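Re-run with default settings, no changes from the original entry. Doing this only to confirm the output is reproducible before filing.
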Amino acid sequence: MEKVAVLGAGSWGTALALVLADNGHEVRLWTHRENLAEEINRTHRNEKYLNDIDLPHSIKASHDLGAVVEDAKHVILVVPTKAMREVCGQLKQVLNERVILTHASKGIEPGSYKRVSEVISEEIPEEKYEDIVVLSGPSHAEEVSLRQPTTVTVSSDELEVAEKVQDLFINRQFRVYTSPDLVGVELGGALKNIIALGAGISDGLGYGDNAKAALITRGLAEIARLGTSMGANPLTFSGLTGIGDLIVTCTSSHSRNWRAGNKLGQGYPLDDVLDQMGMVVEGVRTTKAAFQLAQEQGVEMPITSGIYRILFESADPRDVVDELMTRIRRHEMEDLTNILDEKMND
């Protein structure tokens, strides 16, 4: 049994805390809201984020970060990417022993274009942690909390450390694979949220499965193009953290990004959509970062560019879809061939 600190009491953080508690670990769940910590400890529920889910009594919540991480061997970071630097800044002040840091957040930081693991390594001194691990894959918190079968991937620069995190989480309902491609695992999880926004927009416009299938497939090509340019292995995007996560996020009403896109497709303004959601929609922030990064690196990402225009330039979603459908004709295998050629020439 390990003592584990989970930072972030949203739906995903709470679901992961439940998995860890099921595995017999001593789980401390941190939230910056004192009233939420009191609610969880009193009712053993987190109604705002995981309605009607009974949490194991072994999960203890607190808004005191120092108390949560005291004597912990593992710290699991599950906070929105926009809050990651701030939380890491607080965390480094209270870490007294080296821990394994695992993050399960999916995004890219606009402006710096940093992956989440890079943000963490910039904010927390290396002597305070053993390694940084990413956990990602097709995993709706709602289904994990119901103990429905789920499979994810963990990755770090050190395989032995990734295997420790694999052992920490794996059980009969929650299967965990390892991957050596930290960059690809992180980027697949982040960039798929952009395409999920697009899938929601397509559904909101009333288009059918044909359009969404094309969007997902061509979206995967964009993810692979940008990911490979940043050093990822293109094969990673054919796995759980690529096509697997893309499918589940683009096709399910559990997905915040799909729901937000669906509202945009129906004509609601972005600010109103985000207010209605009441939760962070990571794809909005990631779209801005990916659009800027693609321009800087000269990577063609027409779907991402179109979604950027809808989000930040008030473009009409129908006009954007029409433009995408009437782009210059090309060969479907062109993207895959170019990606593989580039990788072989590295």
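The chain has two domains: 3-180, 184-344. The longest helix spans residues 182-204.
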